[in-house]
Threonine synthase
Amino acid sequence: MRYISTRGQAPALNFEDVLLAGLATDGGLYVPENLPRFTMEEIASWAGLPYHELAFRVMRPFVTGSIPDADFKKILEETYSTGPDGVFAHNAVAPLRQLNGNEWVLELFHGPTLAFKDFALQLLGRLLDHVLAKRGERVVIMGATSGDTGSAAIEGCRRCDNVDIFILHPHERVSDVQRRQMTSILGENIHNIAIEGNFDDCQEMVKASFADQAFLKGTRLVAVNSINWARIMAQIVYYFHAALQLGGPARSVAFSVPTGNFGDIFAGYLARNMGLPISQLIVATNRNDILHRFMSGNRYDKDTLHHSLSPSMDIMVSSNFERLLFDLHGRNGLAVAELMNSFKATGKLSVEEDRWIEARRLFDSLAVDDEETCRTIAEVFKNTTEVLDPHTAIGVRAARECRRSLDTPMVILGTAHPVKFPEAVEKAGIGKLLELPKHLFDLHEREERSTVLPNDIKAVQGFVSSHGNRGKPL
Ligand SMILES: N[C@@H](CCOP(=O)(O)O)C(=O)O
């Protein structure tokens, strides 16, 4: 499998190099040159497989030529293990919970950091370990988080021998539990940086660092955000997993996906292009609604970033939107480069009418504010006694507003555990006390370690280069 850049000017790479690349050298994002497509018979034959075996079948074409089958199988078996010493706390790894009639929540929060990010970052850490050990290479990881990616990346990579990890989060803009999940993991190769800015500032600095890596003095920079193709690849699997449990592929399924960076829903779009019958994909955003503004009015314009009760989606510009633009423009990298350059200069982007109509055909969308989020948490609790986290609640609201057919199962991606967001749960008027799971029971007493830095790329790069070799200068 070869991967090409969405901006058409970077060399094509194999999976191993894409895993280690982050952004392409032309500033684009890597995508498979040709997407594998499965037949209905093939997909149907996967019904009932354990999660790791399904993962092998779905992802194998993406890693072919880079990771030998036997190694990949072993990595997947470890990544999606369950039981007392397993990585995931639920035997089904990603169980479906029925909310009512034909409406289901796909619970993606039974991993170590209680969010869907564990599905990809537990795998990414193991893949990195495998590839870096083989190459005898040490790398620096830089990631930006609005709350969930950070802890999942640290948890996924902390045991990697050859990695120093730097996670940038917006100072005082993530929930208490989210922050502690990152800052209480201590290790000489783990560095949390609280930026005096917002998530987009953090994301911008990470992306800019890929374009200018001299500060790393020859050490390679690797991405843990969904700009890294391996993240998207791993997230495709749970769409197959959910659909197969609900009668797929003979029956199509609809999905509603809370999304900020457009990575999780883009994985669903790819699953559909790979042959999985998906009747509807709903983009569910909070008040930071750049994706909804594009889908509903062809306006992908930067706006002010609002702090909300669903902080993981407090994102102004969605990285993976560029991957969709690439497809909407017939995979013409130069056209995408032109659009992205003009977006950088003006903060505004719209596409030709026929391309936008195509996007409307592919996705429905809704933006949900805090009030409506809390109302949905309360409504679902009243009817089912299930407590939703605010991001999942946004997905439920969007599913209910945008649903096209009551006969088709509707799956809402349950992106995080509500215990991470007590403020929203409390504001929704839910008196029930939510307990942290056993492995995090003392989270609020643990020692925290992080460094506050100004919103200044030179300060960040200076910090990375002076701590990038197990806490020592590079
Ligand atoms: N929602 C994310 C923001 C980063 O997105 P990613 O999917 O590109 O890692 C978070 O919680 O950190």
